[in-house]
Structures
1.
Amino acid sequence: MPAALRFPLGGEPAYWARLAGENALALFLVLLLALLVVTALAWRVLHRIAVPRQESALPPWLFLVVRAGLGFALIVGGAAVFAGIADALDADEELATLDHAFTQALAGSVPRPVLHLFAGLTRLADTATLVALGAGVALALVARGRLGLALGWTVAIGGNGLLNVSLKAVFQRVRPLHDDGMVLASGFSFPSGHSSGSVVACGMLAYLALRLLPPRWHLPVVLLAAALAFGIGASRAFLRVHFASDVVAGFASGLAWLAVCVTSIELTRAYRRRAIPPTST
């Protein structure tokens, strides 16, 4: 190991980036477990404060305010994380140094069979896959008469694709070298389109499940969506077609856009309920 990377606790950040890369698989599993635990706990809390219940003394409009506030908080939080990473890319080369140290250390630390699993996982957020998924779900919703949900789903998937292409054109970051032939990717690197696409697609599918499936399925679907989105995004770093900061920025932009879409759909539903007077019996 180079002398510049031999640092104890509190030392050179590149040392810790390299250490994380050398233990990337274990780090991935720990973060995945933490994500599932936090998601389950957050679900329990949000289910109490953001879902109207017959036995609750709170009026429905207050639950709408809470949900809208949570949506706006996610929008601001995701945008802030993305802006912080983008600013670090422009300000100096420290983030680039950490990204390269992590990617180089990761190259020889993950068994090839595991890389094959990630290569299969990453295909779930390929452009062709998302286009097919987007069209299929939209047609299914239209067939069920859910025109509003079909429109919201289409705007979410298509809009995120346009947003990612625009952001890549603005930042024009070159991808890391990935010459192992496992997965090939072209175009610019920042932010990761697979990461943002997986967050939006899985998040919207979870939202549709909350709207259309019985309550017993809600938490399992939310946990599955979170795990799948995280796994797809992480696969881009493991396959070295993106830097770690590209993946995190993709998660942040995808979360912000998902929150925009879901919040817009919920506010539109609330407006329509108030605009349509109840029928007299």
2.
Amino acid sequence: MLRPVNNAVVNEVLEPLRLGGRVAYLGEPVSVSDHLLQTATIAQAEGSDAPLVVACLLHDLGWLIGSGGAGHETRAALFLSEFFDRSVTEPIRLHVTAKQYLCTIDPDYYETLTLASRRTLHSQGGFLDAHGTAGFEAERYALDAVCLRRFDDRAKDPGAITPELDHFVPMLESLIGV
């Protein structure tokens, strides 16, 4: 069951980012928080709806909330499912598979990935087989996950200027508990 919105809930959602977001982002020239802010800013500038912008803002939160058996995308989606509906959590859960999918269906896409993103692709299972491709395409939020992935790929610029995290708080508030 989703919680009603209040400041404590927003703070709980954003706490991992505020506390740990300044760490380097997996070999990229930006921090985790810079990457997430850039991804959300790009999504918003491209006219994405609020759930996708919030998914972009929070998609790599799993890197900051533990480790272990589940991938970062699953950790983030599970944590956030207490607060948001599937329109936010499913693109997050699927964004790694979206990278695998794009690499599988578009040989040129792989060449656009940074070295760090290529490394994580291989550690995340690499390319999809026919079953994996069909399974991804059948997912309700596959298109949103592909959009998130493409915004993610563009969000690794150390010189990018973005709004502060608080810019996105009203959007988070509008979606928590919906």
